[in-house]
Amino acid sequence: MRATSWNGSRRALIEDCLMLETLIPHLRASARLLALIALNALGAVIVLGMGLWRRLGGSSAATPAIVQWWFRRVTPILGLRMRVEGQQAKSALIIANHISWLDIPVLGALGPVGFLSKAEIRQWPLIGWMAAQIGTLFITRGGNQTADLIERIETRMREQRPVVIFAEGTTSDGRQLRGFYPRLLAAGQQPGVDVQPVAIRYGTNAEPDLNAPFIDDDTLVESLWRVLCQPKTEAQVHFLAPIVGADLDRRTLATLCERQIADALEVPIVARATAKRRGPEVTTP
């Protein structure tokens, strides 16, 4: 009788432990989500203040530093732990591989950078508005905007504000690199402008983090919840040596960047049509 009672109690205890083990990640995610909502609300207030300041004739010189400050608060809430190799160039066109929306807070926390994004993001509630207010450059898919974008990118870099281009044009799972689109690398061919390849990885080469990639039919909500449930998400960022793009045509420049990033990540380069990716493109150079 005692044995039966003990076995029943032990089984109940095991079930409670398993339930708690399942529940803890969701409790963690819920707490982080509340913190993220609060930080976004603060961000919206800051962006409103910055917009008002500009309308009154104030300078926008502090905008990059404020944006970096905000990203540095976002990354710990997301559970991101970053390991960095190399050093970001002060003024360069940054060409990076693209795995997830996480790439944006990761790079944004490491330096005062601007981003090139697809035009559709500008229509997203709150996020699109905030992105526009902090100076994100938008590109219309299939649009003939190259000359105008190159001019705006050059202006940013003259202001010591590096611009990030995810040259694969979409996200992949990080276990391969898609061939880069060379068109917008024309901005890196201007005299005095350096191009800096940057390699991003989540997890390690031996054990990639399969929860980080934002691919296939993933939704932003599903991806965010996966990340928030994890105790931590390890991001490795390798700033490679800058390249003098003025000496190269843009196709050669794109090929050189993709090879250096692929070598740093120890992954193969695959054709754009065959890489495992998310449907909607993030940027379309």
From TrEMBL:
One Pfam family, short name: Acyltransferase
* Gene Ontology molecular function terms on file: acyltransferase activity
UniProt entry tagged with the keyword Cell membrane: no
* Residues annotated as domain Phospholipid/glycerol acyltransferase: 92-203
Question: Which GO biological process categories is it annotated with?
Answer: lipid metabolic process
Name the residues that span the membrane.
Answer: 33-53
Main location as per UniProt: membrane
What the entry lists under InterPro entries is as follows: Plipid/glycerol_acylTrfase (IPR002123)
SMART domains assigned: PlsC
Q: Where in the cell is it found?
A: Membrane
Q: Which UniProt keywords apply?
A: Acyltransferase, Lipid metabolism, Membrane, Transferase, Transmembrane, Transmembrane helix
GO cellular component terms, A-Z: membrane
What PANTHER family has UniProt attached to this entry?
LYSOPHOSPHATIDYLCHOLINE ACYLTRANSFERASE, PHOSPHOLIPID ACYLTRANSFERASE
- What protein am I looking at? Phospholipid/glycerol acyltransferase domain-containing protein
Q: Which organism is it from?
A: Halochromatium salexigens
